[in-house]
Amino acid sequence: MIKGMTGFGSADISLEKIKGGVEVKSQNHRYFDIVYYLPPGMSSFEKGIREELSREIERGRIMVSIKITDRPLQNIKFNKDAVQEYLRYSKVLKNDFRLTGELGVADLIRLPGVVEAREVVLEPDVIWPTIKKALTIALKSLIAMRIREGKALAKEMNDILRRMLLQIKKIDGRLKVILREKKKTLSEDEFLSIQKGNDVREEITRLTHYISEFKMHVQASGGVGKKLDFVAQEMQRETNTIGSKVQDRDVSNAVIALKSKIEKLREQAQNVE
User: Fold this and answer.
1) Is the pTM of this model over 0.85?
2) What is the pLDDT of residue 21?
3) For the chain, which domains are there?
């Protein structure tokens, strides 16, 4: 069954003190295209992300966002030498300027150079398995949405194809009436000329074949959106030929209805993977 190209999935990241999330969104696009929104230092994940996505998706614009909301700090380091210097100068200032009071712990830790704390650099090899797991979960949700969209598209397309067959039946029936009426009033040579000019049996046969072909692709798995668009173009070509060959109001109305339905099929094919 066909799949759509719109979807969303998300999953949490949790590795010891590292917390965050992965979001994957997809929308219509002619080709397979990925847009990355990654934290600093994670650009090396792009290749792995592409490999994971390409296993499940053939077409569409995919936006992958990874956010790290919490990460551990390095062990806080107290610079004892700096503390001793501050205390020594404190005593000197007290003696020289006859000051009172003592430097407390709260005062000291606010002084430059006393406390050092830096963010931990996330090692790609360490965090990638967790990122990959979250990506797999998010991707599963996204694919489920694309499958549901595909089912809805398939239902609508099959209904359009069914109504197209009804229009073809109308054209075929009307052509028989036209020829029957012409035969009563025209000479044999004139009738044969009219019959030849209005002969669209080949076009009807090909158009009916393309409808069957379209149905087959709708039931297929994998990326068939481009194939559906191509088949719809061929439908349009045969319909135009029928309209140009047969100059009759009822046939023209049926041709207009067919063109409208084919255009809807082409529009929907743009939503199919």
Assistant:
1) no
2) 97
3) 7-72+123-145 (3.30.230.40), 77-116 (no CATH), 150-269 (1.20.120)
